[in-house]
Design brief:
Number of domains: 1
Number of helices: 2
Radius of gyration: 12 Å
Largest sheet: 3 strands, antiparallel
Strand order of the largest sheet: 1-2-3
Helix content: 10-25%
Strand content: 25-35%
Distance between the termini: 36 Å
Length: 72
């Protein structure tokens, strides 16, 4: 259960690949704090279309995970 959420906008053109689903480049890193059995905070890249990347512990890791693409 999420107990608080905050976000900070980072310029996507400098850091993130566009969303692979909608092509949007105005992305945010969202920081969430969890309660119950989940530990600490999680950072994830979030797109306005609703897609979000995997949870990470740092902005750098969240960016790396978002920019990682499966090669066909």
């Amino acid at each position: 259960m999420i107990c608080s959420v905050s976000s900070k906008k980072i310029e996507a053109k400098d850091y993130f690949l566009p969303c692979p689903f909608c092509g949007e480049s105005a992305l945010e890193i969202i920081e969430s704090e969890f309660e119950d059995n989940q530990e600490g905070e999680g950072l994830t890249v979030y797109c306005v279309c609703g897609v979000q990347g995997p949870a990470a512990k740092t902005e750098e890791e969240a960016t790396f995970l978002w920019n990682s693409r499966v090669k066909n």
